[in-house]
Amino acid sequence: MKILFVTSNRLGDAVLSTGLLDHLIRAHPGARITVVCGPVAEGVFARMPNRDRTIVLRKLPRGRHWLPLWAATLPHLWDLVVDIRGSALSWLVPTRRRAVFRRTGGPKIAELAAILGLSPPPAPVAWTASADHQRIDARLPPGRPIIALAPTANWAPKLWPADRFAAAFRRLAGPDTLPVVLGGPGEAEQAMAAPVLAALPEAIDLVGRLTLPEAAACLQRATLFIGNDSGLMHLAAAAGAPTIGLFGPTDAATYGPAGPRAVAVVAGSMDAITVDRVVAAARALLDQAPMAATSSASTAGTSRRVVSI
């Protein structure tokens, strides 16, 4: 069986789409899947089982990027085309069946699940390999708990103040707990993370230093994740880390973290999110027993709470 899966250019949406792929892999264990995604999201699928190929869609002016993609997918007769972008491509390639995104409202993972008529929504997953865990083991001290902090985002109003990240860590950390600061590649991400690193001189700086599978392996070791609304937040929830997502100007009801233990802390602005609220939400989250995700249709994908302040 040959499946063409057209997913997002954005990291967060690509992570949320992994629940659909996990469902397809379980339902069709012999399938060969071609994934279409943007360059930022490519690493999400690097360790995916049944992946035949990844086609990286690099945007060109006036939509010219669609022509080479169409040329690459046209020669094949697909058994199924799944398109979470709702693009014209899914109607222009030969396929026995197509499932195309249509906006329905509500949580994004529920909208994605509706593409294949799935309820409850399948939980997002984070694929890793043993090599990723070995690289993380080489970077992190053995046996010490870590709290992962992700102080970056793609928009300045989504940033929680750096001093509050540091204060939340201090209040939640045990005597052996280490802060690990995560972020994407590039000078902008480093600049956003720098004040947190300065406030926590003992922190391990992994900003821009990890592939996405390595970041997922790191997050699978985390005792707790605290981060702004970002792709890393979604990756943390998918990896199973207890996840606190911080939301001010963005829509937590649609894009809140989805995972076995995940919560969105929401206010009218990031400045209005207090350290007290984050610490209380984290302690409540850590008191929960992890939910088992035994199949792609597990309710873990909808385990989301919103704490409004």
UniProtKB/TrEMBL annotation:
GO terms for cellular component: cytosol. InterPro entries: Glyco_trans_9, LPS_LOS_Heptosyltrfase. GO terms for biological process: lipopolysaccharide core region biosynthetic process. Keywords: Glycosyltransferase, Transferase. Pfam families: Glyco_transf_9. One of its GO terms (molecular function) is ADP-heptose-lipopolysaccharide heptosyltransferase activity. PANTHER family: TETRAACYLDISACCHARIDE 4'-KINASE-RELATED. This is Heptosyltransferase. It comes from Rhodopila globiformis. The lineage of its organism: Bacteria, Pseudomonadati, Pseudomonadota, Alphaproteobacteria, Acetobacterales.
